[in-house]
Automatic annotation (TrEMBL):
GO terms for biological process: lipid A biosynthetic process. InterPro entries: Calcineurin-like_PHP, LpxH-like, Metallo-depent_PP-like. The keyword Manganese applies. It comes from Rhizobium fabae. Keywords: Cell inner membrane, Cell membrane, Manganese, Membrane, Metal-binding. One of its GO terms (cellular component) is membrane. Pfam families: Metallophos. GO terms for molecular function: metal ion binding; UDP-2,3-diacylglucosamine hydrolase activity. CDD domains: MPP_YbbF-LpxH. The keyword Nuclease does not apply. This is UDP-2,3-diacylglucosamine diphosphatase.
Amino acid sequence: MMEPRHFRTLFISDVHLGSKAAKADFLLDFLRYHEADTIVLVGDIIDGWRLKRSWYWPQVCNDVVQKLLRKARKGTRVVYIPGNHDEFLRDFPGMHFGGIEVVERMMHDGADGKKYLILHGDEFDVVVRNARLLAYLGDWAYDTAIRINILLAAVRRRLGMPYWSFSAWAKLQVKHAVNFIGEFERVVTEEARKSGADGVICGHIHHAVIQDMDGIRYINTGDWVESCTAVAEHEDGTFELITWRALASAVPALAAIEMHDEGELAPQAA
């Protein structure tokens, strides 16, 4: 049995609960083995866009929400920064729901004294040539890639193999996607600089990375649709990118995680 790990802060984004592509079972498993003084939900936790088109809310979505509420009741500070898919929560800044705080953006004081601007990042789509995530492959192609993900995940799980994202791999093969990612990182980093921060923590583009850009630390938490990643802050202020590639209950625990200290999530081969 894997022992739970405790961190100063956990950052999670782009879960898209309500979408059939959401890896809610992976996130629930992750939350069982990871504790923190503070958990920051960096947007798109609930996929309001998908839910408006067709309602899909299996029990595991409730389980994730209940798990977060339970952590809040037990003393964990849980902060929710809405994204574009859960923008309905932007009408409630400063409100508390079951102990979960809602804020538009926030400044995080790191344990090492550095300041980090935290925001979802969708507001910079307009700056980056009016692009959106689904423009990488086109709406149809992206949805097709996600469906392939679901099929591959079922097959690999039956074979006892860890999760691998076809859509994340395919996205990084497309030149326009790579260009979009680079431009997004640049404008978000510049926003952190303008805000007087030493770094920025965001989500939105489903590309997990920790890197330095012109003296600013850029951290993207990734997602729980493609990469199943979260970012953790240790007690000394260092950051770690964690990838949860298999359910600990189904695969030996040591195979379930890949830890990347202050580095980038590399696409894994099938």
